[in-house]
Amino acid sequence: MGDITYKAGREPHPREKRLIFRNVDREGWDTSIDCAMKDGGYEQAKKALTLEPKAITDEVKTSGLRGRGGAGFPTGVKWGFIPPTNTKPVYLICNADESEPGTFKDRYILHQDPHQLIEGMIISCYAVGAKLAYIYVREEFPEAAKILEKAIGEAHEKGFLGKDIQGSGFDLEIYVHRGAGAYICGEETGLIESLEGKRPYPRIKPPYFPAALGLYMSPTIVNNVETLCHVKHIMEMGGEEYAKLGTPRNTGTRILCVSGDVQQPGYYEVEVGKLTFGELVNDVCGGLKSGRKLKAVIPGGSSAKVLRADERFKIKKGDDEVEIGVEDIPMDFDTLMACGSMAGSGGVIVMDDSRSMTWVLNNINNFYAHESCGQCTPCREGSLWMKKITDRVVSGGGTPSDIDTLAGVAKNIDGRTICAFGEACSWPTSSFVAKFRDELVASTTEENAGKATTPEAAAQRRYLKAEPVA
Amino acid sequence: MDIPQELDEKITEAISHYPVSKRSAVLPVLHLLQHHFGYITEEGVTWTAEKLGLEPINVLEVVTFYPGFRQKAPGKYHIRVCRTLSCAMSGSYELMEKLCELADIDRDTVTHHDPIAVSKDGKFSIEFAECLACCGFGPVCLVNDDFHEKVSAESAKDLLAQYS
Ligand SMILES: Cc1cc2nc3c(=O)[nH]c(=O)nc-3n(C[C@H](O)[C@H](O)[C@H](O)COP(=O)(O)O)c2cc1C
Ligand code: SF4
Ligand code: FES
User: Fold this and answer.
1) Predicted-complex ipTM score
2) Fewer Cβ within 10 Å of end Cβ, chain A: N or C?
3) Contact B66 A355 (CB under 8 A)
4) Is residue B91 domain-resident?
């Protein structure tokens, strides 16, 4: 579509391939259904409603689409987990909780192209047999909730929601449900508990997927906003054609959200794996700030393990093993995993040599200590300990052994919790300690080792020789 | 508790969005109450429980868990400044300091259970929020329902001026 123009200063970079963000920052574009329909909106929904539901799931499987919410799980496969013998109602939930630090893509879909999401949801609901769907929007997106509600009303009026949609016999209602400021509501079973009106305590697995047992103990499909939008484009292009975008096993496009120390932070939709990290930073984002060198990058939201600028990785290329540096990493699911991190939610946080890694880790630890839901002892206590230790280190009261303690605490969380938040909160600490150990240790002092760290501790040691508080 | 008719209609509408379980309406009802009254009162908790056929504890446990629900009155304009990594790297802590100075807010009273600080004249209140999903354009903040990006300590004055 060569006829699209974008707002001045907001034009996509030539390396981008805009599918999902086609209408973001588009000149003359608004959120009304008329605008969407003039542009071919809802044509794919109409087409889908004439097909067999299974045929749609098969297309999605063929497309190779992997979830864009964090785990990168194949969407078609997930849909297939609804028990074939199921007689209960099926629900679909769109995860619009977008709260993984570093991630800012769903925001623009919700604010600027709500009908794309609704159309994707209609197709997906029809495919999985859901007649009731919710969009779980984080509370801090009040404007998005209003836009979505208006868009849902318009879709009703035009007969794309409600009873007997477009004469197909298929009924569907979509409602907006607003969260209340808790990160853990992004975890799908926490989200479901929240939608049931409770504290968002993630559920014990198994069942591993809410597709087996989810909302109101019925099969439930939870997908990210971006994932559901891709479904519309798979309908349009066909699964096979869609799979030609990107790279094998890492198909389609995805939105990379770049923040931190680059000239032009922002959102960039690219074919998965067609761009290396170096190209992303140096070409697309205009390079680092002047005179600065790359120090570290967190490639997939703050839960992803940090990569150090001078690290080398061994990855498979065809049948050969090759050694690459950080800048050579193609930004896809499998390569980032092979490099010991993850593509996660697409949030790329870049840090240059002006940043203190102790300070960065402390900021991240503060986030997780605040957001742990508190169900599991290792996570609830551990995330707070890690925060307290790095708090102490950044304020000058740390001792060298603190760094080992940090690593020990992180190790004792990983794999010992109900939900993946446990890994999410321990991986930053374990990877920062592994990769920036010298710097962390250097921000502590030997002489603090024997000192009491709090006034209370100092008081308890009153029978020892008088000593200052660190 | 005085629930005007318009609010009551909105609450009834919200409850109708959950045909399977009324309990699901706890968050939306609380949002509507908080929007109208400014915060969730004890009475608001029992009223919600009664409305949805729940025990008050089922509502209170929700109010106390979610950072998005308040149990004390905020200022006329409630500011939430993002403190998470990308925003902190672009100066959100400096922004917080500046806003407090300009609006005459003392954050020394802030604790984990009482994260909100209110200005002496009650016009502004402020708290730190975690990542607001706009990390490329920090520092960012919300003032009531309005979103603002690239708010630096230097432009803090202009931000507050919009709410006078
Ligand atoms: C702690 C935690 C937070 C999460 N936050 C989000 C989120 O904000 N948005 C999201 O789409 N997925 C989030 N997820 C992933 C969801 O649990 C779920 O896997 C995802 O919504 C599935 O959608 P997808 O298959 O389309 O990716 C989070 C997971 C965890 C463990
Ligand atoms: S791992 Fe943490 S966030 Fe997840 S259920 Fe346990 S305590 Fe809650
Ligand atoms: S870190 Fe502030 S919006 Fe994400």
Assistant:
1) 0.97
2) N
3) no
4) yes
For A23-55, write each residue's pLDDT tens digit. 999 999 999 999 999 999 999 999 999 999 999
| Residues whose beta carbon lies within 6 Å of some atom of ligand 2 | A 184, 202, 372-376, 379-380, 417-419, 421-422
Confidence check: pLDDT of A150 > 70: yes
CATH number, domain A249-352: 3.10.20.600
Closest CA–CA distance from residue A194 to any residue of chain B (Å) = 8
Q: How many CA atoms lie within 13 A of A353 on its CB side?
A: 7
Distance A103 CA to ligand 2 centre (A): 21
Domain A357-448: assigned CATH number: 1.20.1440.230
Per-residue pLDDT, averaged over A343-364, amounts to 97
Q: Tell me whether residues A140 and B133 touch, CB distance under 8 A.
A: yes
**Do A49 and A170 contact (CB within 8 A), yes or no?**
yes
Nearest Cα to Cα of residue B132 among B98, B86, B99, B63: B86
CA proximity to A331, closest of A277, A293, A288, A379: A277
At residue A256, φ and ψ (nearest 5 deg) are: -100, 130
Spatial contact of A138 and A99, defined as CB atoms under 8 Å apart: yes
pLDDT in tens, A209-264: 999 999 999 999 999 999 999 999 999 999 999 999 999 999 999 999 999 999 99
What are the structure tokens assigned to B27, written together? 């968050």
B145 and B83 fall within a common domain: yes
pTM for the full predicted model: 0.96
Q: Which SS3 state, helix, strand or coil, does residue A222 take?
A: strand
What pLDDT, on the 0 to 100 scale, is given for residue A464? 67
**Pair (B56, B122) in one structural domain:** no
A104: CA distance to ligand 3 center in Å? 8
Examine the domain organization and report whether B102 and B34 are in the same domain: no
- The single residue listed with the structure tokens 């986030």 is A367
pLDDT at A1 over 70: no
CATH number for the domain that contains residue B98: 3.40.30.10
Secondary structure class of A345 (helix, strand, coil): coil
Which of B22, B43, B65 terminates a domain? The answer is B65
Which of B42, B65, B88 is where one domain is finished? B65
Considering the domain boundaries, does residue B70 fall inside one? no
